[in-house]
Amino acid sequence: MDELDKALNISVHGVLAERALRDFKQHVDRWGIALPSIEPLVLDFGLGEFARIGLIEYWIANEARAGYCGKYLFVFDGQSCPRHWHRTKHETFFVLKGALDVECGGRSMVLREGERLPIPAGVLHGFRGLGPALLLELSMPCEIDDNVFEDRRIPIGGNYRKSQ
Questions:
Q1: Which residues, in sequence order, are CB contacts of 78 under 8 Å at separation 6+?
Q2: Which residue, 75, 79, 69, 62, is CA-closest to 28?
Q3: Which sign, positive or negative, has the C-alpha torsion 101, 104, 109, 113?
Q4: For a disulfide at 97, which of 42, 118, 134, 156, Cβ 3.0-4.6 Å?
């Protein structure tokens, strides 16, 4: 199964997704940011709590053979990406707009526009929007099973396979 197809398993669809994308695009238009002409993922991580736990992802590139991935990640005010770590993926976050409350490696910090944070493999991390926020993730290729989520209810990734 393709990595993007796996991500679709934890996506929101229907009216909720349409509303989230409409609100997201209003922010992006206001900021004057161009979006790639690809279908975004509206993720709730399979928890059904999108307003609290979720994000919108645009997979700009996931070039496994070439060894890189680039994504836009967007969170609404107060919305969080759940704490997780990667077995092999190293990633770097760059905040394009807004600010994030980030937990990374046992430290809490605020990342603001223009700031970046490299995150090595094996480091537990998660973030929450302090207002709407857009970041660019530059990383090794995305492999869904490389994600290990702290919340065992999340039905994908390495922790899910182990618990089955």
A1: 52, 128, 129
A2: 75
A3: negative
A4: 134
Tally the domains of the chain.
1
Rounded CA-CA distance 110/164 in Å is 36
From CA 156, how far away is CA 142, in angstroms rounded?
Answer: 13
Phi then psi for residue 70, to 5 deg, are -140, 130
Residues in the chain: 164
For 37-93, what is each residue's pLDDT tens digit? 998 999 999 899 999 999 999 999 999 999 999 999 999 999 999 999 999 999 999
**Using the 8-state DSSP alphabet, how is residue 9 labeled?**
T
What is the reported pTM? 0.91
Domain extent, residue 93, equals: 3-163
Query: H or E segment at 118?
Result: strand 116-119
Decide if 137 contacts 127 (C-beta within 8 A): no
What is the structure's pLDDT at 162?
45
d(CA 54, CA 34): 22
Bridge partners of residue 55, in order along the sequence:
43
Q: How far apart are alpha carbons 122 and 147 in whole angstroms?
A: 10
| Rounded distance between C-alpha atoms, residue 119 and residue 141, angstroms | 14
CATH number of the CATH domain containing 149: 2.60.120.10
